[in-house]
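note to self — DONT lose this again. spent like an hour looking for the file last time. sequence + predicted structure for the chain T wanted, 199 res
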Amino acid sequence: MLLSDKEISKLAENDIIFPFTGEKRRELDNGTKALSYGLSHAGYDLRLSPNGFMVIDNALNQSIVPPKPLDVKSFDESVMYEASPIEAAGSTYFVLPPHSYALGVSLERITMPANVMGICDGKSTYARQGTIVNVCPIEPGWSGYLTICIVNPLAFPARIYANEGIVQVMFLQMESDAASAYGEGKYQNQGAKVTFAAV
């Protein structure tokens, strides 16, 4: 069953999302217009943290001969760099170079009950600019900060805003607790920084 805003608010009393914004917000605290975040009709829009935005710049890595292949079983963090946030006109953003991708982290911490699963999708605002936001489902029993993949497939740079909405989570409640909730998996209790691939 897909949970409504009322049901998500009730779950939030158990700190499934922290900090929790119990309404859809379209402005930052300083009054600047923002990509919406917080509780929506049938989900919750998470924000991107301003910390730990890790970029793989395709142009930089192509200068390595021969180019290093990415290997999910042995991820080489040296192919990435941490981008510095830019402050302008009341907003904070990162610049994602053309044909590159980044790993960011959610500003909110998630603690999923054993009978609820989260399905994630990028916000339509980014989709309309051609930016691809990829987040895996949030398993029942999982806890931590989400690692978020952001891809710029276009030939020019893209601004990616911190402290503003980036991913919508839709919550599905199961009829009973999962027999094997996430427990002590390799991504359990991820901290407020990017967690790289682990096998």
